[in-house]
Amino acid sequence: MASSSSLFKQLGLTGAGSPLSGRHLLLILLGAGFLAFTVFVVHPNEFRIQSFFAGSCGRPSAEAVAAASPGKAGSVPRATATEAAQAPAPAPDDDGDVRVLIGIQTLPAKYERRHLLRTVYSLQVREHPSLAGRVDVRFVFCNVTSPDDAVFVALEIMRYGDIIVLDCAENMDNGKTYTFFSTVARAFNATRYDYVMKADDDTYLRLPALAASLRGAAREDAYFGLQMPCDRENFYPFPPFMSGMGYALSWDLVAWVAASDLARREQDGPEDMWTGRWFNLAGKAKNRYDQAPRMYNYKGASPDSCFRHGFVPDTIAVHMLKDDARWAETLAYFNATAGLPLSGQIYHLPPPAGSRP
């Protein structure tokens, strides 16, 4: 008690004229000690998060918050697909993870499909925060000619910033893919992507599986996808090539396409076959990664084949999801709604049919 009294005197908080008695101050110090014990010992993780916010003007990284709150999935900040697309490039000496730009070829009027895909991929990024800024999803179409579409697309660009409008007439097999790769080579030259992927809007990509596969692939002269033909039938004079459902090129091949007279001249034809043909004729893409059976077409009632079969757990991509029913079945199988908040008050939803346990 004597030491406490001495401390109070040094602080000038006792004696004549002091508003507080020694007993009051002792109670204050005991309360402060209890608060410090609670913050630093009982709830240290919360203090670490608060310290992070206090020491930074910006938002904390997903990794920092995840480290501060291990095992608490709800505490990780959630990144949208747009945030992923706009995130700055990591430093060259970062953790070595692969950076991928995915261009989903679609049409200006397909607003509902873009809304579905934005939701699907932003939820994957939320579940796997390390994808943010490393796997960027963009929607790609040619010049917008409809005045109505121009208004709605402009709103999308302002809101999401994830659309690339190419300078070409809308088409599927008359140069759209060439224009995409050559435009990306110029517009994203400073972004340091390792791979650029062309994908269809009826393809469901599982981004963590895609990134993990590309992480182990070569970063140069590399061509990644479902190789066709995938059986003994040589059904086209320019095999092999990667299926148009979704294939990725290493950045050096994207730059080569942009500079190649061969690719510029040979644009009219099935886009996936012609891409493979460019590389075959030029002796390019020596590092080829065939992802069968992890990339495949939706089976439905069709017989199994080397490019079409039932769902498998380690899927990278499912193609030919032409309608909502197919999308719902696919998303249910892969437990896309597994993180739905449980509440008996406001969410009266049946469990997804066909979902895996």
How would you describe the overall organization of this protein?
This protein is α/β, with parallel strands linked by helices. It has a domain at 98-293: Spore Coat Polysaccharide Biosynthesis Protein SpsA, Chain A, CATH 3.90.550. It is 40% helix and 13% strand. The chain contains 13 helices and twelve strands. It has helices at residues 2-10, 22-42, 44-54, 62-68, 81-86, 111-127, 147-160, 176-187, 207-215, 251-259, 261-265, 271-282, 324-333, and strands at 100-105, 135-141, 163-165, 195-200, 204-205, 222-225, 227-228, 241-242, 246-250, 287-290, 295-297, 317-319. The strands form three sheets. The chain has a seven-stranded mixed β-sheet, sandwiched between helices. Strands 5-12-11 form a three-stranded mixed β-sheet. Helix 6 links the parallel strand 1 (100-105) and strand 2 (135-141). Helix 2 crosses helix 3 and helix 8 (176-187) crosses helix 10.
- CATH fold descriptor of the domain at 98-293: Spore Coat Polysaccharide Biosynthesis Protein SpsA, Chain A
CATH architecture of the domain at 98-293: Alpha-Beta Complex
General shape:
globular
**Name of the CATH first level of the domain at 98-293:** Alpha Beta
Distance between the termini: 64 Å
Summed over residues and divided by their number, the pLDDT gives a mean of 79
Low-confidence stretches: 1-20, 34-96
Percentage of β-strand residues: 5-15%
Q: State the helicity in percent bands.
A: 25-40%
Integer-rounded radius of gyration = 28 Å
Strand order, main sheet: write it out.
Answer: 3-2-1-4-9-6-10
For the sheet with most strands, the description reads: 7 strands, mixed
Enumerate how many helices there are, as a single number. Answer: 13
Q: How many β-strands, per DSSP?
A: 12
* Pattern of helices and strands: HHHHHEHEHEHEEHEEEEHHHEEEH
Q: Which structural class fits the helix and strand makeup?
A: alpha/beta
